[in-house]
Design goal:
Blueprint lengths: L2 H6 L2 E4 L2 H12 L7 H23 L12 E6 L4 E6 L6 H7 L6 H16 L18 E9 L8 E5 L4 E6 L6 E8 L9 H12 L6 E3 L2 E2 L16 H12 L7 E7 L5 E7 L15 E6 L2 E4 L14 E5 L9 H5 L2 H24 L1 H21 L4 H5 L3 E4 L8 E2 H6 L7 E6 L3 H6 L4 H6 L4 E3 L4 H8 L1 E2 L2 E5 L13 H9 L5 H15 L3 E6 L8 E4 L7 H9 L10 E5 L4 H12 L1 H18 L6 H17 L1
Parallel strand pairs: 2-8, 12-14, 17-18, 17-20, 21-23
Antiparallel strand pairs: 1-6, 2-3, 3-7, 4-5, 4-7, 5-6, 8-9, 10-11, 11-14, 12-13, 15-16, 15-18, 19-20, 22-23
Helix pairs in contact: 3-6, 9-10, 10-15, 19-20, 20-21
This protein binds adenosine-5'-diphosphate (ADP) and magnesium ion (MG).
Amino acid sequence: MSTENATAQTETKEFQAEVKKLLDIVIHSLYTEREIFLRELVSNAADALEKYRHQSLTEEKTFDSHLPLDIKIEVNDDQKTITVTDTGIGMDRGELEANLGTIAHSGSKTFFANLEEAARKDVHLIGQFGVGFYAAFMVANRVTVQSRSFRMDDQGHEWVSEGTGSFTIAPCPGIRRGTKIIIELKDDAHEFANASRIKRIIKRYSSFVSFPIKVEDEVVNTVQALWARSKGEIKDEEYNEFYKFVGNAVDEPMLRLHFAADAPLAIKALLFVPESNIEKLGFGRTDPGVSLYCQRVLIDQHSKTILPEWLRFLKGVIDSEDLPLNISRQALQDNALVAKINKVVSSRFLKQLAETAKNEPETYEKFWKEFGAFLKEGVVSDFMHRDELGKLIRFESSKGEPGKLVSLTEYVERMQEGQKEIYYINGASREAIEAGPYIEAFRKRDLEIIYTLDPIDDFVFSHLGVFDDKKLVSADRGDLELPELKDEATTAEEAKKPALDQEAAKGLTAWMKEVLGTKVKEVLESKRLEDSPAIIVNPDGLMTSSMERLMRASGQGLQEFGAKNLEINSRHPLIKGLAELRKKDEPFAESVVQQIYDNAMIQAGLMVEPRTMVERSYQILARVVQS
Ligand code: ADP
Ligand code: MG
């Protein structure tokens, strides 16, 4: 072919109108992450190699079939160029024109779908939308694409453009199969003519691409996309190595989940639970540790949208080929596909936890101790997974040994006949709860009661509301209704301790209410107490004392909390004595009432005014030592 001939075959073509618009934005808008051009070019190269591999299996003869399948990146610092070469499927003249001159292909289609939206919000957002091949013009003055198709009859062509309205296509004889893209860097993009910079970018976005990527003859992507391989052939050590790589970790994972699904979505996921929860160590909130990939190419590192927030302790990878590579981070947030992947993967993880709990209780307990707080957070914040999470939470209970954890399922299994509700009470420790007034009525009836030792537990239960159709009820509710006492012996025991008569009790409670004023809503005679003289209960069943304490501590307590009820035990010697004292020395009896109230508040874990309380208790003690 003569030079004249070749020139004669050079054609200048206008870009499609939409491409012009797109290029204009690419070239003139402010891009924050210009380095993604390399991700786009490498992923195109990997696609082309994949397509070639596929073709070579079915095609009888392909051009240059001896070439190794790889991607080479060369940097020329003198000329300020970057060259990306692949030995993939290549493009003939028609394909060059169609693929690089229109926006018929998927990548930039997404861009246009998002463009209008972005224009309405903020032009700068445009920078977040991927634009596929055209991203090269973010850094290039001129882009040259030399390509030769795998088909035996293609001769090779060169496509050249400066990104301003038109491109040329000319024959380019003598080249090998595949595509070479030469980027002549803009003045403000010379930083990219630097091999170590290029290596870093490749490691970030393209570590798992399945063909070797060579920069200065060094293969940069040495880690396998383990998630894409089948489970059976992967060794534990390989998994652990991979965990260390993606999790940037030095420990060994406690649990892992590796699964693949084809329907309704193509998802491959490889997730790890680390050895320990660093939030617990006081390192502050961890960032999400799972990254989103499409066909092994990074879309969103440490994605905030691919899993619920409460799963932020997981490390690993989710890959879905159904996602467009060019999807922006902005668009990820309201993408229905992403929401579906999120749901499928979280449910799978919870299912695996349930299996671990059943088959390896010790491992699960270890997991719970480290990461239980995240599951509790899930109950509170994630309605969608609430029921699944309800089965996974664990607590101590009155029926278990100290330190032994029970599930709500176990609790329900051993509920008494006729028992309709699940009971719990919060306290600072097991000992504090067992010494307090709240569990007396439960002990008497041999009813199991869950001890919620973590201040947030009451929020967890109030969000859960019911478990297995049984209401979750805090023992400090005013309207607590426990099953009738059946045991006659206990009843007889009660009878031995005579109570104040009805009238005296009524008079006493009315007077106590007067003394306490607005501090309490009501003073009532208790049906639940045995050994304690008094107890604070919450008349409205929604808020427990521990919830109130937590809200006060976080500064939310400034608004009014509903006043509480004080219940008194009319069989208790202190209460009976109080009725007598009132007749003899009312002012002193009033002090005793205030002290009973403060003591009951302390047992409820609520704040009292310490100075007044201590002064008063000294006055009372002074009377005791004087008499
Ligand atoms: P997408 O990759 O989403 O299709 P791009 O803008 O990245 O969009 O690429 C446009 C098209 O150009 C591709 O679909 C492909 O047909 C073609 N193409 C780009 N780079 C190459 C390459 N290295 N080898 C072969 N074809 C390519
Ligand atoms: Mg592409």
